[in-house]
Amino acid sequence: MDRRALLQVIGAASVAPLVEAPTRLFSEQPAGTRKVLVAKPGENRFPYASAQQAERSPCMLTSADSRGALSMFELNVGSHAGPVRHVHHREDEWCYVLQGEFLFEAGNDKVTLPVGGSIWMPRGIPHVWANTSEASGKLLVACQPGGFEKFFDALGRIPDANANEPTIRKVMAQYGMEYLGPPLFGLWRRRQG
After folding, report:
1. Are residues 23 and 76 in the same domain?
2. What pLDDT is stored for residue 160 in this prediction?
3. What is the C-alpha separation between 92 and 141, in angstroms, rounded?
4. Which of 19, 102, 121, 151 has a 20 to 30 Å separation from 189 between CA atoms?
5. Residue 46 domain-assigned?
6. 114 & 179 share domain
């Protein structure tokens, strides 16, 4: 076997488990343990410690629901608000605009998305976003792998008066993220009301 053929075999063998993993995750479940999960409008499937956090980021699908594959949220975002500039080292993130208009800066790209628009932000790409509308906005957000609801829960445990840069940096680091800079307008939680 020549070197090129050997490298192709090794490359295919190293990628195959990653491609097969999501399918295997669910197909290996015994038929009796598979179940349909429903999140009704306004329902939150994760037991956040803070009722205010449950209102800001209701979890529609938890990591436990999906056996670790995915977490999904409906984020309620006030006018001219969003998170700090950051980068995920664990999760890929997909956002779909349900209400309002959002500006996303991801890597070198800047895009404004109206209702119905979406953006995929792979882990490792710095990003920030904000609701640019004069009214409240909503995003449907999926994070893979699952578990991001634990980060939101940790944020919700911080009293608003203590939500300063050092505290946010510390929580982000605990969940595999880096704080890279301020939000585009104002902190999401302070403008949520």
Report:
1. no
2. 83
3. 10
4. 121
5. no
6. yes
DSSP symbols for 106-173: ETTEEEEE-TT-EEEE-TT--EEEEE-SSS-EEEEEEEESS-HHHHHHHHHTS-GGG--HHHHHHHHH
Q: Side by side, which strands form the sheet with 177-181?
A: 109-113, 102-106, 127-131, 85-88, 177-181
Torsions phi, psi for 136 (to 5 deg): -60, 155
SS3 for 180? strand
Across the chain, which has 193 residues, the per-10-residue mean pLDDT values are 46 44 52 81 93 95 95 96 96 98 98 98 98 97 98 94 90 97 75 44
DSSP string covering 69-98, please? Answer: S-EEEEEEE-TTBB--EEEESS-EEEEEEE
Among residues 133, 139, 99, which one has the least CA distance to residue 119?
Answer: 139
109 domain residue, yes or no: yes
Q: pTM here?
A: 0.81
Q: Token pair 């956040």 is at which residue?
A: 48
